[in-house]
Design a protein that fits this description.
single chain, alpha/beta, Aldehyde Dehydrogenase, Chain A, domain 1, 7-stranded parallel beta sheet
Length: 431
């Protein structure tokens, strides 16, 4: 089947999938979980082939860590599928109901977006999370993973698609793309594809936006900040900063820039340096930072960099306003945290920092669909459209208006024979 035929098949399947009930979709998800466990050895073997090839090609260590998909990770994604099954069906919910007139009722009801094309990094677990989220939300999906995970992606896509046959889910709801030519072809298929979710750099997301008429839900760089305010508990601040940076460095919600209030910097920075260097983090600091602790100099480029590695840039600031201004100037709108005992400062930070996720006294690593209880995520949206932050089930549905009448015509209202009541209803659709 060529690329065009595959996309047409997914489009056709998505129409039927949109009407699938919760029981059907959950049965399909259970079948996927069972199949992944049954084929564990085959999956691990395919992943080892990807790891061996990528190591020979010189793939960076943090990316190698992302690529690894061992038995423990297989069990993790299966647990994620089980959690997803327990979530309510996002499709068919009545979001609003209005009586336009007696016997004429308008309902706004959630429905799938349709066909979603997702381009993601070399994380095989992302393929499982994305495809199962799309299934639960009733969407057809086109998957393009990184070439480093070629063998793992192939076997996972085959297992997932095969497991849903005869479960009531329409065949062909999922297709795997493998080449750049496939991506370029996908960008031109606006008559079949309803949304594209690119996960990557700002430049990559901009390229997708500039080369397609399809709506794009951008998941760009994760230039995440922590601001340690004058009113911070130093021990707490060190714990939060270390976790944000080193718990898993090769992900978009890892800390990249640390901002420190000048009043707390002399006490906090030495403690933070000692804790971070135990994890072999390279520190780069502004002049005021380097006057307190020994580290490499930070440049203007550092404030704009997503390291995805054991590197952290540090800047001492005069106060909350400067921290907020720095984040809004250099951040990517992903996740930013303030560490402080001052509630007023925390509220101002959370109101004024222009990011999809703003935290108080906790790690940036909590910015995650699974940790939010969303059933994993297809990505983190830094856009300001229908979905922002971790995009889980709720971000994969839109809505339609359903109007139920009893023979009414517009002429009756235009000519004054009838009047609208526009009364809110407390019942859902269907009646």
């Amino acid at each position: 089947m060529n690329m065009h035929e595959a996309v047409q098949t997914v489009k056709k399947a998505s129409i039927r999938l949109a009407a699938a009930g919760a029981e059907v979709k959950n049965a399909a998800l259970m079948a996927i979980a069972d199949a992944l466990l049954a084929r564990e050895n085959d999956i691990v073997k395919a992943n080892l082939a990807d790891l061996e090839r990528s190591e020979k090609e010189g793939l960076a260590a943090p990316l190698m860590k992302r690529l690894r998909f061992d038995s423990a990770k297989i069990r993790d994604v299966v647990a994620g599928i089980e959690s997803l099954m327990a979530l309510p069906d996002p499709v068919g919910r009545t979001q609003a109901a209005t009586e336009l007139d007696e016997g004429l009722a308008l309902y706004r009801v959630s429905c799938p977006i349709g066909v979603i094309g997702i381009i993601f990094e070399s994380r095989p677990d992302a393929l499982v999370q994305i495809s199962t989220l799309c299934l639960k939300s009733g969407n057809g999906v086109l998957l393009k993973g990184g070439s480093e995970a070629r063998e793992t992606n192939r076997i996972l896509a085959d297992i997932i698609a095969g497991a849903t046959i005869n479960t009531g889910v329409p065949d062909g709801w999922l297709a795997l793309l493998e080449t750049r030519d496939d991506v370029n072809a996908m960008l031109a298929m606006d008559e079949y594809i309803d949304l594209i979710v690119p996960r990557g750099s700002n430049e990559f997301v901009r390229y997708i936006m500039d080369h397609s008429n399809i709506p794009v839900l951008g998941h760009a760089d994760g230039i995440c900040h922590a601001y340690v305010d004058a009113g911070a508990d130093i021990d707490m601040a060190v714990r939060v900063v270390v976790d944000s940076k080193v718990q898993y460095v090769a992900v978009c919600n890892a800390l990249e820039t640390l901002l420190v209030h000048r009043e707390i910097a002399p006490a906090f920075l030495p403690a933070a340096k000692e804790a971070l260097e135990r994890h072999h983090v390279e520190l780069r600091g502004c002049e005021r930072t380097r006057a307190i602790v020994d580290c490499a100099p930070a440049t203007e480029e550092d404030w704009k960099t997503e390291y995805l590695d054991y590197v952290l840039s540090i800047k001492v600031v005069d106060g909350l306003e400067e921290a907020i201004d720095h984040i809004n100037a250099y951040g990517s709108g992903h996740t930013d945290v303030i560490i402080t005992a001052n509630e007023r400062a925390a509220m101002e930070f959370m109101d004024l920092v222009d990011s999809g996720d703003v935290f108080w006294n906790c790690s940036t690593r909590f910015s995650d669909g699974f940790r939010y209880g969303l059933g994993a995520e297809v990505g983190i949206s830094t856009n300001k459209i229908h979905a922002r932050g971790p995009v889980g089930l709720e971000g994969l549905v839109i809505y339609k208006y359903k109007l139920v009448g009893s023979g009414q015509t517009v002429a009756d209202y235009a000519e004054g024979r009838k009047k609208f009541t526009h009364r809110r209803l407390d019942r859902g659709f269907p009646l």
